[in-house]
TrEMBL record:
GO terms for cellular component: plasma membrane. GO terms for molecular function: symporter activity. The keyword Transport applies. InterPro entries: Na-dicarboxylate_symporter, Na-dicarboxylate_symporter_CS, Na:dicarbo_symporter_sf. The keyword Cell membrane applies. PROSITE patterns: NA_DICARBOXYL_SYMP_1, NA_DICARBOXYL_SYMP_2. Pfam families: SDF. It comes from Staphylococcus pettenkoferi. This is Cation:dicarboxylase symporter family transporter. It is found in: Cell membrane.
Length: 426
């Protein structure tokens, strides 16, 4: 125990990651052991998810109550949504360009590829279709932003309705003045208590990381990876390009180095990669970006919304996967069809928030609209977990940078605070 205390948490997580890979390779094929290892990862992830809603609600309500202007909140919202729409569209277009250049699906014999089971995802897509009240998922998403029952939204963990109520509640606290002080004190105390819980939960991160990585390697092995290595390389390469070049350019425009953001988030990126869950780092991400120079009212507003509307990595992957399957089946997609694919993915990805296995479900819906055989997804399901790990990291980077973009546009990004925080990491 004394030795563990001397090893920093990021190093513990790295060691757990390496050990997870080694043990996973040694136990490959023994899938019956997955049920004994995976629960440790699920417990860790559940602990994190348990405190996501209190953090989002308390921090957002407090931040909005301190802003006190509905016009200012509306301006934040408009800028955030516009930026998210632009950057995710760029991600989708970039994925299509990379898929056209490197053609990962050309020359593959689909009959020789291992097939996965997509029946669960098809069921989720069907349920989402049946649950649509207006015949269009995007319209449903907009309507459902306003919760008909707050407690139902809290129970289901839907972020958008909770964000809406928190913003409205924060404006109400601001409007009633001094009468709101006891409520604000309660929210402040709750937030402090929850962050204490987060610090304790994060100490279990190495166990969670080991469990997730180990079971992933045990399950898919090299048999699923090697036949689709070209697709894997194209996806990973395009995501590295997107983060370094596209997000790097956006960061440069804001006077920030993208590698500085990676530096302060290295532990969170490792955790997000291992767990394939952006939620696992949401609370600490809000805290770190505030320390990096983005005001609390912006980080607590922008990051939770980004978890629904700004999934850059997922958007990039979906566009490559769509072209990949079309190429594999020998389908030629002209410029017009590819533009339609961009528009379809833009809408489908926003309208499927909260659906289990959202990336594959979005693709099933998109394939149906574009007349691409959905059965092609069964051929890439074997490496989807690995791709999910990578795209989760890109989603985290995109949402982190978005707080700086909005803060910079409002003229409230604190560069000195950023420099001091970076120096503390040296």
């Amino acid at each position: 125990m004394k030795i563990l205390k001397k090893v920093s948490l990021p190093m513990q997580v790295t060691i757990a990651l390496v050990l997870g890979v080694i043990v996973g390779l040694l136990l490959y094929g023994h899938t019956e052991l997955v049920n004994y290892i995976k629960p440790f990862g699920d417990i860790f992830l559940n602990l994190i998810k348990m405190i996501v809603i209190p953090v989002v609600f308390c921090s957002l309500a407090l931040s909005i109550s301190n802003i006190g202007e509905s016009k200012k909140v509306g301006r934040y919202g408009a800028k955030t949504i516009i930026y998210f729409e632009i950057i995710t569209t760029v991600a989708i277009a970039l994925g299509i360009i990379f898929a056209n250049i490197f053609k990962p699906g050309v020359g593959l014999d689909k009959d020789k590829l291992p097939k996965g089971d997509i029946s669960t995802y098809e069921t989720n897509a069907k349920h989402a279709e049946q649950a649509s009240s207006y015949g269009h998922h995007f319209i449903d998403t907009i309507v459902n932003i306003v919760p008909k029952n707050l407690f139902e939204a809290l129970t289901s963990g839907e972020l958008l309705p909770i964000i809406f109520f928190a913003v409205f509640f924060g404006l109400a606290l601001s409007a009633i003045g001094n009468k709101a002080e006891p409520v604000k004190s309660f929210l402040n105390g709750t937030l402090e208590a929850v962050f204490w819980m987060i610090n304790k939960i994060l100490k279990l991160a190495p166990i969670g990381v080991f469990a997730f990585i180990c079971t992933t390697i045990m399950t898919f092995g090299a048999s699923a990876l090697l036949p689709l290595l070209k697709l894997l390389l194209v996806v990973v390469g395009s995501m590295i390009f997107f983060v370094v070049v596209v997000l790097g350019f956006v960061a440069w425009l804001c006077g920030v180095n993208i590698f500085s953001i990676m530096k302060i988030l290295k532990n969170e990126l490792l955790l997000a990669f291992s767990t394939s869950s952006s939620e696992s780092v949401l609370p600490i991400l809000m805290q770190k970006m505030e320390r990096f120079g983005s005001p609390k009212e912006i980080t607590s507003f922008v990051i939770p919304i980004g978890y629904t509307f700004n999934l850059d990595g997922s958007a990039l992957y979906q566009s490559i996967a769509a072209i990949f399957v079309a190429q594999m089946y020998g389908m030629h997609m002209g410029i017009g069809e590819q533009i339609m694919l961009i528009l379809t993915l833009m809408v489908a990805s926003k309208g499927m928030a909260g659906v289990p296995g959202v990336s594959i479900v979005v693709l099933i819906t998109t394939f149906s609209a574009m007349h691409i055989p959905a059965t092609g997804l069964a051929l890439i399901i074997g490496i989807d977990r690995i791709l999910d790990m990578v795209r989760t990291c890109v989603n985290v980077m995109g949402n982190s940078l978005s707080t700086i973009v909005i803060a910079k546009s409002e003229g409230v990004f604190d560069k000195q605070k950023m420099k001091d925080y970076l120096n503390s990491y040296s």
